[in-house]
């Protein structure tokens, strides 16, 4: 039997999670360094274990449905966060950010992501509570995003970033060299911005785009603002360490975008089906709910999400191995 989560559990959980995130970010600021593979693996494993423990606690306090919604939501947001890392890699490489300062840049990116997602969660929860038809818009948006995700080319992202750079350089004085992790520096007696400001703006813009995608996606799994928020926090935990753990491998996960696109399309379909099932719009079926519209259970959503990511990752690794064999055959 599923129960409502105790208010003390919700408040206590949010407080503890925010403290963990703040502690992690402070640690990155105090100790700027390049994490080793072992260090990154330990931290990523620790945060994944925390998410599993949290799901077990939710199962104990509120039942299987809430726990399942959290796991499905967390995996969805985690997959979208990994997709976010692809763009971070492009941004870091494009601006030649020194590797020892990349932790601080990622730290700023995570803070921006937390703030933006928090705002969108509040707005999304309010819209859902007052306008049930918003699910139609969320669903259509996710379907549109899924198509863009599947067919977007890497050079399209590069062109957009180049446009941003050109506009910024015309409007504000920006030096060509980094000065540590400083945003501003002094050159010939004049204060100018360093390239780090462009990096921050590029990452902030990226976070905004991903927040627009991720929040409707998770509201397709659960309408609980608490589960939505905690799933997002857990997804962002360890993102900094995951960036260094995956390293060059992230460029080789060529089919990951298709797995994520399939997840977004599936959740978009689920949202539209839910909207039809609870329909109140007068021009659709006379304002009555559509009986044949399916209500997809949480465990089905969880299975689809896990299977999609697994297939995408395995297919990518198989392609990497196949490409290596071809290169070896050519050199022989």
Strand order of the largest sheet: 1-2
Q: End-to-end span in angstroms?
A: 64 Å
Structural class assignment: mainly alpha
Query: What is the beta-strand fraction?
Result: under 5%
Instruction: Count all strands and give the number.
Output: 2
User: Total domains, how many?
Assistant: 1
Considering the chains and any ligands shown, give keywords for the structure.
332 residues, mainly alpha, two-stranded antiparallel ribbon
Describe it for me?
The chain has 332 residues and is mostly helical. It has one domain (7-331). Helices cover 76% and strands 2% of the residues. It contains twelve helices and two strands; from the N terminus they run ααααααββαααααα. It has a two-stranded antiparallel sheet. α3 crosses α8 (225-236) and α11 (256-277) runs antiparallel to α12. The longest helix is centred in the C-terminal third of the chain and has 34 residues, at 298-331. The termini are far apart. The mean pLDDT is 79.
């Amino acid at each position: 039997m599923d129960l409502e989560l105790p208010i003390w559990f919700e408040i206590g959980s949010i407080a503890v999670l925010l403290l963990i995130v703040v502690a992690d970010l402070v640690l990155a600021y105090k100790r700027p360094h390049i994490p080793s593979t072992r260090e990154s693996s330990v931290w990523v494993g620790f945060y994944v274990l925390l998410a599993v423990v949290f799901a077990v606690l939710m199962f104990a306090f509120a039942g299987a449905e809430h726990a399942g919604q959290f796991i499905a939501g967390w995996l969805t947001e985690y997959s979208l966060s990994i997709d976010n890392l692809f763009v971070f890699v492009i941004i870091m490489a494009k601006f030649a950010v020194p590797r020892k300062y990349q932790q601080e840049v990622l730290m700023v990116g995570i803070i921006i992501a937390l703030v933006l997602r928090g705002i969108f969660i509040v707005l999304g929860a309010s819209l859902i509570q007052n306008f049930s038809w918003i699910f139609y818009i969320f669903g259509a948006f996710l379907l549109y995003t899924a198509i863009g995700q599947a067919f977007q080319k890497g050079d399209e992202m590069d062109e957009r970033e180049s446009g941003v750079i050109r506009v910024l350089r015309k409007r504000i004085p920006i030096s060509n060299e980094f000065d540590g992790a400083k945003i501003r520096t002094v050159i010939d007696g004049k204060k100018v911005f360093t390239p780090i400001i462009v990096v921050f703006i590029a990452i902030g813009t990226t976070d905004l785009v991903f927040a627009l995608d991720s929040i409707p996606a998770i509201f397709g799994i659960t309408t609980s603002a608490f589960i939505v928020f905690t799933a997002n926090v857990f997804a962002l935990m360890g993102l900094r360490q995951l960036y260094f753990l995956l390293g060059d491998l992230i460029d080789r996960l060529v089919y990951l975008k298709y797995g994520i696109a399939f997840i977004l399309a599936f959740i978009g379909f689920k949202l539209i089906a839910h909207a039809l099932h609870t329909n109140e719009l007068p021009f659709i079926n006379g304002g009555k709910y559509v009986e044949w519209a399916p209500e997809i259970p949480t465990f089905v959503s969880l299975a689809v999400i896990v299977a999609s990511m697994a297939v995408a990752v395995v297919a990518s690794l198989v392609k990497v191995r196949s490409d290596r064999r071809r290169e070896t055959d050519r050199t022989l």
